[in-house]
Amino acid sequence: MTAPFLDARGMTGGYGAADILHDLTITVARGEIAVIVGPNGAGKSTAMKAVFGMLPLRAGTVTLDGRDITGLTPQDRVAAGMGFVPQVRNIFPTMTVQENLEMGGFLRRDDIADTIAQVYDLFPILKDKRHQHAGELSGGQRQQVAVGRALMTHPRLLMLDEPTAGVSPIVMDELFDRIIEVARTGISILMVEQNARQALEIADTGYVLVQGRNRYTDTGAALLADPEVRRSFLGG
Amino acid sequence: MIDFLNAVIVLANFVIIPAMAYGAQLALGAMGVTLVFAILRFTNIAHGDTMAFGTMVVIFGTWGLQGLGVSIAPLPTALLALPLGIAVTALLLLGTDRVVYRFYRAQKVNPVMLLIVSVGVMFVMNGLVRFIIGVDSQRFDDGARFVVSVRQFREMTGLDEGLALRSTQAITLVTAVIVVAALFWFLNRTRTGKSMRAYADNEDLALLSGIDPERVVRITWLLVAGLATIAGTLYGLDKSFDAFTYFQLLLPVFAAAIVGGLGHPVGAIAGGFVVAFSEVGVTYAFKRVVTYLVPEGWEPAGLLQILGTDYKFAVSFAILVVVLIFRPNGLYGGRTA
Lengths: 236, 337
Description:
The structure holds two protein chains of two kinds.
Chain A: E1 6-13, E2 21-28, E3 33-37, H1 44-52, E4 57-64, E5 67-68, H2 74-79, E6 82-85, H3 97-104, H4 113-122, H5 124-128, H6 139-151, E7 157-161, H7 169-184, E8 188-192, H8 196-202, E9 205-210, E10 213-219, H9 220-225, H10 227-233
Parallel strand pairs in A: 3-8, 3-9, 6-7, 7-8
Antiparallel strand pairs in A: 1-2, 1-4, 4-5, 9-10
Chain B: H1 2-40, H2 47-67, H3 78-106, H4 111-133, E1 146-148, H5 150-157, E2 165-166, H6 167-189, H7 191-201, H8 203-208, H9 213-238, H10 243-260, H11 265-283, H12 287-293, H13 312-326
Antiparallel strand pairs in B: 1-2
Helix pairs in contact in B: 1-6, 1-9, 1-10, 1-11, 1-12, 2-3, 2-4, 2-9, 2-10, 3-4, 3-9, 6-7, 6-9, 7-9, 10-11, 10-13, 11-13
């Protein structure tokens, strides 16, 4: 097996004196979907922040495509090929959909019109609403804007923090379909999800976290089939 | 019919035209306040004195140009000195940011603390202006006094009442339209302007998108320098310059910004006119207007003036209180003040 595209190994750290993450390892292979699930307070979002450089690490390394990025700021990680969609406050609400996408591509000096067209192909509803303020859209559409904004830098790893939080089940299924489409274009995806069952169904690899530690790591299908995982984390 | 026309002319001469000019000046001032609030996230108490400083530099520039014999008559020389005023004010604001505000920004202090800091900056700027130009009133308008004078108007129309349009009023309105159009074009059409709106909207996401906050802050201060200097100069041309008046202007300017919704540039414009029309309307004696409109013998005995002009600041204050009680986000739903 070749080295994974994202390799975050042995991450230990937290905001204050107490560590939240303990020797946590998350890897994502190229073009794969990896999902982090676990109970509330397991450190799922914190793990995501650690990968993205928003959490001070006492130990551990993060490499992206073989390059050590442990010391980089979040902004530099965006330039290095990461795209991040925060869980909340992930759009510019008083700007139009089109402007949100333009701001996503702010770092790029080349023509971004093609990338905007690609995002519109992926999320056709955004094309219809491109002159509307993003803050006026429905929850699911806002998430599409948020994902679209993150795609504007041509990331090779897209990180989504609970993309389906607060959207209806129908919209959730649609969002997952879109995420699979994004992965098919060769972009690796790391996702934190509250809806564990549905997320594991589309996951190539699943990580079950408990109290900031790796508890189970396997393919999504294997985790879904594991009776112990089902009983403890998927509600039977 | 003639009486009705006369009434309209009196109203236009004493209420509508002065309030339009005053409203435009307030709107430009309020847009500066609103920009600082939206992007730097604090209420800038020093804005009135920033206007005073900018105007002071323009006055010196005007005197210098007059000394050199430069003139753009019939337009006031001050317009030619505006770029100098804006440039020096920009240096002052960037310097203040570097020395004072940046320190607090780095610590991510509470907005209330920055407000108090700006009170300190206000005292320093206020002292600076009084120290350099003094506390006396300065008139610095030259060029033509009127576009249309009362006598010309009477001769043109044959009406009893005259309508005067002072050139400073006309210049105020034209300049305000140009400045507002340019500002909106900048904020809505340019990459830099959009990045400023993005930063105002969602600071963290702007950072993630690679927008440099310090650059946004610098450009904001440049725009504020421009807006404050232009607003102050137009006010000074229209009325006169004295440091204390500019300090007092803070109240109507803030009322305008809050009425429209802090952080909302369109709201600042609407707020400017709401405050100006209220202030002029409430303090104007409507006796002459009404006298033309009612049948003979019904003329009102009193002045029909709601408040004496000495109380004009009470109007802004009342508007401020009412808006904060009933619609704290302002007409256009800006952020909570």
